[in-house]
What we know:
Distance between the termini: 41 Å
Bound molecules: zinc ion
Shape: globular
Largest sheet: 8 strands, antiparallel
Amino acid sequence: xSIDPEKLDRLAEVAVRTGVNLxxxxxxxxxxxxxxxxxxxxxxxxxxxxxxxIVTPFFTDDEIILARYAHAPDESFDRAPNWLYEGMxxxxxxxxxxxxxxxxxxxxxAEQDPEKVARLSKATSIAAKPAMTPIVGFEVNWxxxxxxxxxxxxxxxxxxxxxxxxxxxxxxxxxxxxxEGDDPVANWEAHSQALQERVDWxxxxxxxxxxxxxxxxxxxxxxxxxxxxxxxxxxxxxxxxCQPNIPTEEVFTCPHAYKVEGTVAATKPLAHQGSVIxxxxxxxxxxxxxxATATQGxxxxxxxxxxxxxxxxxxxxxxxxHSSPISRSGTLFYNTLFDENASCHIALGQCYAxxxxxxxxxxxxxxxxxxxxxxxxxxxxxxxxDAVDIDxxxxxxxxxxxxxxxxxx
Length: 409
Ligand code: ZN
Ligand code: ZN
């Protein structure tokens, strides 16, 4: 059993119509690993069928990335192609939508020098900023979906022959992306409605903080002033309602970058830029991580935290019930798009400006005053399980159960 072409085609169609919701005449910029060419071709077909403008894909290739680590001069690791990201930024200013395809080898850089990996990642983040700003500010409609690349599939299903692993991963992506049944568009409408009800409940309570307790976790997490919970489909500033992540199970908002205290133990390994970091524990003081350990990949974690000032503070807090379909599948995907939707998580680094009321219009200084964090990185890590309880703390100090045993209370 290899990748079912009909399933791949349905994924492409839903990504275009429900995910990015490409508008007639709207250009589309796609970034993808070379391995996902087949999916990108199908996305292009559905984009043009939907009346879209110009579809422009940009590909990366694992072998070419490794060639750089093997043979490029040392200075290469402090540079990135600024012109490329400036071009993308110009495309978004001109109204283009954005799609990202994930699905390359999560362990690609595991054997490379972590210092070089960190330098290149930083140089790339700096160069990519003009292209990322319209995305984190939700100025344009965007979407991210996954393709079951061979090396990724082999990592998730190591005991299966490659083609079978890819077929299995395609099925897992298909189920997690709620594509089953006669009408995936209707599936997504119902799912989005359910997420909206959680969002409305949380916004109505307007908690000042959340308190997490669980094995290795006792965390008081302040929320940003004027924070708004979001989830599922929502309108970008250009007015187009899109579904940024497929799959998505989370409702999320902006934590207060200076009001987080206590300890957190991660509940799943974190796959980050080609390395897997296992058993992370951190301690926060006044919003900053002052202690961090991991049983594997600790040097990668520490390099990550040192990227810049905001890298050791958090910019996103998300709630996901333990019974979400991705969590129930019991599969560890080594891919944030999936693993973050199996578990409550927090993200180190950059906040989403639109999770603070009026935030998209704020200057960096105004955002900071509300508690919004700024950084070159945004890295989600998973800290939810069926053993974690969460209380909401109201403005008057009252405690209201939000989650018990990993489920909505
Ligand atoms: Zn998230
Ligand atoms: Zn995130």
